[in-house]
Structure formats: C-alpha cells, structure tokens
What we know:
mainly alpha
Amino acid sequence: MPxxxxxxxxxIAELKxxxxxxxxxxxxHLLKYLSSEIGDxxxxxxxxxxxxxxxxCSPKDQKEKWxxxxxxxxxxxxxxxxxxxxxxxxxAKSV
Length: 95
C-alpha cells in the first residue's frame, strides 16, 4: 500500500519533535547530575567552563578514555527493558 508524501512528511515531523523532546530531557538530566556533583556553587556557566578547560587541557589518550566511557553512560532508560542492577551503570542523580 503506497504512502502519500504528506503522510511521510507528517511522520518525519513527528520524529523530529520526538528527537527534540529527547534532547531536552537529556539536557535536563545532565544539568541535574552536574548540579548534584558540583553542589551549592553550581551554575550552567561554571559547568561549561569546567568541561571546556578539562577537555582543552587533556591529552589525547585521556580524551579517548572519556569517549569510551561515555558510551556506557545513559541518561534515559531503554523503553522496553527494566534495569535489574542499577549499580551496573551510573545514572543521573535527582536533585
């Protein structure tokens, strides 16, 4: 059954909206996590400065370690699976 171009465009728009929503939720989780790690003096600008300085002053091998470690860190739970052991992966802390 052929789909119309309008139906495909509608689906694309829906998926773009879902992507935007997911990115927003991930950013919120990241800010909560950074806030809990930094503490009372947390500001988004401070967190950005820390990341920028850490990244720019680190050697290539450290950056590669961070990139490898980042693949195991998830802010969102997979949809159809339940996390049995929550200590297995780091998760963002609630504020």
